[in-house]
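User: I'm putting together a teaching handout on how multi-component assemblies are represented. Below are the sequence lines for each component of a complex, exactly as they appear in our records. Could you produce the 3D structure of the whole assembly as structure tokens, so the students can see both representations side by side? Please keep the chain order the same as the input.
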Amino acid sequence: MQKITKLFILGLFVSVSFKVAAQSDTIPYHEDYRPQVHFSPEAHWMNDPNGMVYYNGIYHLFFQYYPGGTTWGPMHWGHAESRDMIHWKQMPTALYPDSLGYIFSGSAVVDSNNTSGFGKDGKTPLVAIFTSHDPKGERAGKNDFQNESLAYSLDNGTTWKKYSGNPVLKNPGIRDFRDPKVNWYASERKWVMTLATQNHITFYSSPDLKTWTKESEFGRQLGAHGGVWECPDLISLELNGEKFWVLIVNVNPGGPNGGSATQYFVGQFNGNTFTPVDNEIKWVDYGPDEYAGVTWGNTGARKIFLGWMSNWEYSGQVPTIKWRNAMTLPRDLKLKNINGKILLASEPVSELKNVYGKSYTLTDVKVLQPLSLSNKFGAMPRQYLLKMNIRQLKSYQVSLSNSKNEELLIGYDSKKEQYYIDRTKSGKVDFNQNFSGRFVAPRLINSPKSDITIVVDNSSVELFADDGLTVMSCVFFPNEPYRKLQLTSSETVTINSLRLIDLKSIWP
Ligand code: FRU
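Assistant: Of course. Below is the structure of the complete assembly, with chains in the same order as your input.
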């Protein structure tokens, strides 16, 4: 009898512990492929970041969200909040489809002067400006099914009310008429809307967010036009005391490595028109997996960019089960003068330090034979940061791999002067024919010195090279986590300093 009880208890214990082990993959935010230092929705489909605005110590991130499934569907605005842009808390869904249609992409502003009149009892309104997309009009073959609408919040972004006078900007008959980004143009005390209008940008202005006047158009003959223009942004940045304007324009398809990507123009904006300083095509991020990137509003001189870490070519087929797609890390933007060209550089925000864990350092390592960092420091965690400084740049390669011989390669090719990420043998690649590939990006500076920061997070890598002049984001889906990390070089490179930093998960 006693023996049977013991066996029963043992059996219970085995079955309980087995269940715990089997379930660990389904603990919220700890499933297979779940990013640990990037925002992703707890469940369901997500695309573009929307309404990014900083207010009262909180960074708001709204996003294109379909709470009914893991593929794109009737669009809502999901909502998340953060105090440091690294740790996120998903909030109740902010905006639901209505009689004017789905809630497509847009922006949000702090209407401090209550120009809209939505403020009440001294409460400052947050105002969201978004596209109402009418699917019935689209199906009926109309051209004017996208119009711009407003919603406002008087409780710091928690709950939202749609404006009864929607839409506030009517479509003049342009099929793609969407993704309004609104900024306060202080010198003329007016709002400026940057709107994606098919193959160009249209600027509008308004005293009160409710009535809009067309100012000008930009870009029919400039920039990359492999696809439709979407999700623009207009920001000012200083370079050595001189003010420039940067116009960000997302394009899909037509990116440098196929599919969707973010281009930018540097120029001047006078409140009415944007004039670029040159005619070159430039990219914020050359990797396959950054799209719809825009910046936070109300952050003063600091400009912080965040994109959707996916690509319309396969975003609906990536092998995650409970949710689909994450955001990139937030990135600080800066302008740099490189041999007379004004270029945008981006680097992870310094707040990322909030998740720094243990770190390991090496100096002056000559990479002759393959150097295994995982043999030196132990099996790699799922998320970490690798920083390397090189005084005499030569070809090198960083490889992440597992026991199934699946690998992700990141490197620099000195002959071609290109950085690259190769996910050809990275694991699951067959879910879409455009997923597998080797992606390249130019080195934009001509100096023997180089630095590179690589942020790995379970199923993504972001590469920031040469102080953020060349950036690439790329997702991957191995059949077993990459526990090995190795450096190789065909030209015997010396890494003058190398720092490997474990990153702590942002999820409980
Ligand atoms: C860009 C985009 C936007 C649109 C939204 C719809 O990814 O196509 O132009 O507003 O997604 O979800």
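A couple of points students might notice: The two ends are 43 Å apart (CA to CA). Residues 2-23 form the longest helix (22 residues).
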